[in-house]
Design a protein that fits this description.
The protein has about 400 residues and is of the alpha+beta class. It contains 10 helices and 22 strands. The strands form 3 sheets. It has an 18-stranded mixed beta sheet that branches. A two-stranded antiparallel ribbon has the order 1-2. It has a two-stranded antiparallel sheet with strand order 3-4.
C-alpha cells in the first residue's frame, strides 16, 4: 500500500513537472526554456502570483539560453539592458525627474533584475490593489501568420487560482469566439485545457487548441505538445524556423455523423440546393454542412442567428470550391457566435465530408479560406486520412499580453 501511494505521488509529481515545463510560465517573456533538457520546477510565486521556477540546469548552463521573446526584446532594445546602454548623464537626469516615485527593482528567480508590479509602487495610494488577484493571459490570432487577422484567442496560461465562477465571466469579458484556461495535466498530456465561448464551455474546439499550443510550446522548444480536453488528449505537432513556431498540425477527435433532419427547411432559408447531402458532424461542436455551387453565393450570404436556432442549428458551414481551395463561412449561433473567422472544429469534418462524397481523395489535404467577409481572413489546412484519422493545421501569431486584476 505504501508503494502504491508512492507511485501515485510520483505520477502526480510527473504531471506537475510537465505543467511546470509548459503551463506555469505565464508567457514566453518570462525567459524560461527547457531546451537543455531541464525540467522546470516550481520554487515559489512572486508578487503577481506568477511562478518562480528552477529549470534544473547545471550552474554552468544557467543564463546561457534565452526564450525567443526575450531575445527579440534584446534585439529591439527593449528591457532593462536598454537602460544600461544609455549615457550616465541621461540616467542621472531620469533619476532626478522621477525622484521618490522611481519604480523599485526587485530580484526574480533566475533573473538578476526585474521591475516591481505597478501596484507595489502605489501601495501608499491604494492598498487594496495589493490584495487583488492577478490573472495573466496571452492573445493570439489563429489560422493566420498576419497579426490582426485570423481568429482571436485568449489563453490564461495558469488558471489554477481563478475561481470556477469567474471562468465564464472572463470569457464573456474577452468576447472572442473562444478563451482557454490552462491547468496541470490529469492524464497523458503536458497540460489540461478548458475552452469557453462567451456563453458556454466546449469539450473541444479547433482554433483554441492550435492557438494554445503556439502560446505554450513557444518558449519551451517543444516539437509536440499534448493538450488534454474533454474529448481526449489532442497532440499538436509543431514546425519551426529557428526558434519560431511557424505551423502546427493537430489530430482531431473522430466526429459522429448523421443526416440533418430539417435539411429541406435549412436549404430553403439559405436559398440553395446543396450539391452534397446535408449532414451533421459532431466532434465536440456540431456543424451542419451545406455545399454551394458558387463561392460568390457563399460570399453573399446574410444570415441571422434566430432562424438558424429555430431550425435546431448549432453551427452551419456553407462552402464552395474556389481556385484550388475551399471558400467557407461558418455561423455558430448555438454558442453565441454569429460568424466565426476560422473554425478548426469544422475544417476537419469538412475534409471528411468531401472525401466521403468523392469531392477529394482520402489522404488529400485541402486548403480552406474563411473570415474574409468579416475582415478577419484566415487560412486552414485539413486532411481526412480516414474517418477515424483527421488532421487540421495552420499558423498563429501572438499579438498581446495582459492581466486582469479582480
Amino acid at each position: 500500500m505504501v508503494a502504491a501511494g508512492r507511485e501515485r505521488d510520483l505520477e502526480a509529481r510527473d504531471r506537475e513537472h510537465r505543467f511546470a515545463a509548459v503551463g506555469l510560465v505565464a508567457d514566453d517573456d518570462d525567459g524560461v526554456s527547457a531546451a537543455g533538457g531541464g525540467v522546470a520546477d516550481v520554487r515559489g510565486r512572486c508578487s503577481r502570483g506568477e511562478p518562480l521556477v528552477d529549470l534544473g540546469l547545471a550552474e554552468a548552463e544557467r543564463g546561457c539560453r534565452l526564450a525567443g521573446a526575450q531575445q527579440r526584446a534584446r534585439e529591439d532594445g527593449v528591457g532593462l539592458h536598454a537602460l544600461r546602454a544609455e549615457s550616465r548623464p541621461e540616467l542621472a537626469g531620469l533619476r532626478t525627474a522621477l525622484g521618490s516615485q522611481r519604480t523599485k527593482l526587485v530580484r526574480l528567480s533566475r533573473c538578476r533584475l526585474g521591475v516591481s508590479d505597478e501596484d507595489q509602487s502605489h501601495r501608499g495610494v491604494n492598498d487594496s490593489l495589493a490584495s487583488m488577484a492577478g490573472y495573466r493571459y496571452v492573445v493570439a490570432d489563429v489560422f493566420t501568420d498576419t497579426p490582426l487577422t485570423g481568429n482571436q484567442l485568449a489563453v490564461f496560461t495558469d488558471a489554477r487560482g481563478i475561481p470556477e465562477e469567474r471562468l465564464q465571466d472572463l470569457a464573456r469579458e474577452m468576447s472572442f469566439s473562444e478563451t482557454t484556461f490552462v491547468y496541470p495535466p490529469e492524464a497523458d498530456g503536458h497540460v489540461k485545457m478548458r475552452i469557453f465561448t462567451p456563453s458556454e464551455e466546449l469539450p473541444f474546439a479547433g482554433h483554441p487548441t492550435l492557438g494554445t499550443a503556439f502560446v505554450l510550446a513557444g518558449p519551451m522548444q517543444l516539437v509536440e505538445i499534448r493538450l488534454e480536453t474533454a474529448r481526449g488528449t489532442i497532440p499538436v505537432q509543431l514546425e519551426r524556423e529557428g526558434a519560431r513556431i511557424v505551423f502546427g498540425r493537430m489530430a482531431q477527435p473522430a466526429p459522429a455523423i448523421a443526416p440533418f433532419e430539417r435539411a429541406a427547411e435549412l436549404q430553403a432559408y439559405l436559398g440553395v440546393e446543396s450539391r452534397l447531402p446535408v449532414e451533421q458532424y459532431d466532434n465536440g461542436v456540431q456543424h451542419t454542412f451545406v455545399a454551394f455551387d458558387s463561392p460568390d453565393r457563399v460570399a453573399a450570404l446574410l444570415l441571422e442567428s434566430k432562424p438558424l436556432l429555430e431550425l435546431g442549428i448549432h453551427g452551419v458551414s456553407c462552402f464552395a470550391r474556389e481556385d484550388g481551395h475551399w471558400k467557407t463561412r461558418v455561423f455558430v449561433p448555438g454558442v453565441g457566435v454569429d460568424e466565426d473567422p476560422a473554425t478548426g472544429s469544422a475544417a476537419g469534418p469538412l475534409a471528411l465530408h468531401l472525401a466521403r462524397h468523392g469531392e477529394v481523395e482520402f489522404g488529400e489535404e485541402i486548403e480552406i479560406v474563411q473570415g474574409v467577409e468579416i475582415d478577419r481572413p484566415s487560412r486552414l489546412y485539413a486532411c481526412a486520412h480516414s474517418p477515424e484519422r483527421i488532421e487540421v493545421g495552420g499558423s498563429a501569431v501572438i499579438v498581446a499580453r495582459g492581466e486582469f486584476r479582480l
